[in-house]
Amino acid sequence: MNVRTRRGPAAVLLGLLCLLPPLQAAAQATAAVAIAPATRVRVVVVASGLEHPWAVAPLPGDDPAAGWLVTERPGRLRLVSRDGRVGPALAGLPPVDARGQGGLLDVVLHPGHASNRLVYWSYSEAGDGASNGTAVARGRLDLAGQRLEDVQVVFRQQPKVDSSAHFGSRLVFDRSGRLFVTLGDRFSRKDDAQQPGNHLGKIVRIEADGRAPTDTPAPVAPGALPELWSWGHRNVQGAALHPDSGELWATEHGPQGGDELNRVERGRNHGWPVITYGRHYGIGTRIGEGERRADVVEPLRVWRPTSIAPSGLAFVTSPRYPGWQGSLLLGALRGQALLRLTLAGTRVVQEERLLESRGERIRDVRQGPDGWIYLLSDRSDGQLLRLVPESP
Q1: Of 44, 169, 259, 301, which one has the fewest beta carbons inside 10 Å?
Q2: Beta strands 86-89; 76-80: pairing state
Q3: Per the database record, which ranges form the Glucose/Sorbosone dehydrogenase domain (predicted)?
Q4: In this model, does residue 5 exceed pLDDT 60?
Q5: 5 in a domain, yes or no?
Q6: Element of type H or E holding 111
């Protein structure tokens, strides 16, 4: 499907008249960047009948049963076989508090999964009264028994709050085998995301067994929890390691506009809710102090005034997609598209929107060990999709 820029001739002309010097500078700056033309792709439906699927983890191996693990937000983890059959819900998961945006969320394999069979997943866990919070559990996958064994909860967001929104929940293993966990602000209107002594609006990094790493000799801020990596986040639902640098990149939801793409560094403040490009819902007034501050990380890209609601993030390293190597793919829920960003270092030099005519809420994006790109559509009859390039 061709990528198209959604701007009319008048808008383009006005932009050229008003912004000619910046556009010339941008053209000069990106002249050396190899930008591939819009790539035609077709979508292959791998599996259907998934109820609000949230994450997909491709399984390694040639066994026809070893296809993909897919989470469904109502609380089920299913095995989808290579021939597209959706299996029954796997047994062994702890209870899930599936309300609002909560439920069974991300799923990833341990880097040593081939030998230890460990699977990690995030979910909303009930607390006292109506409170809940993001939790992370792990277990050993028993494909023959259709279950997870030796299940342990390795992380719990603190404090639990009475909310059904902004759970974050993306899980990413770094190159040392430690686990990044993105944690939403739980739709708090206070400045909890700016307080380093809690888990609200944070990204943490933990050992595979849940302990705080001991390789960080000093806290990232006074009073910070030892597992804290970064703070000032609203709701990070896309995260991936850069294939060259190993750095964590992430996308997060703004409110009314202000969605962000960030390069996440240890000990850095990302601003929310005091520094943001977003606006108050409905009335459109400014939130916090403004859009920039010296101690706050500047996003690599911002989507405004209209949010795309980014979810799912993957770097393309596969040779199956000519011209796409090094691109960054992200799903858009509100935007109902797959975005491909062409990068020059840490600069975004081009954005292309794919699959807009399908009208799909793209929840997750993964590159599988087979080199194909897989997507999840978030709806009551959700699908697991594969992207296949069309011949020129």
Answers
A1: 44
A2: antiparallel
A3: 50-386
A4: no
A5: no
A6: none
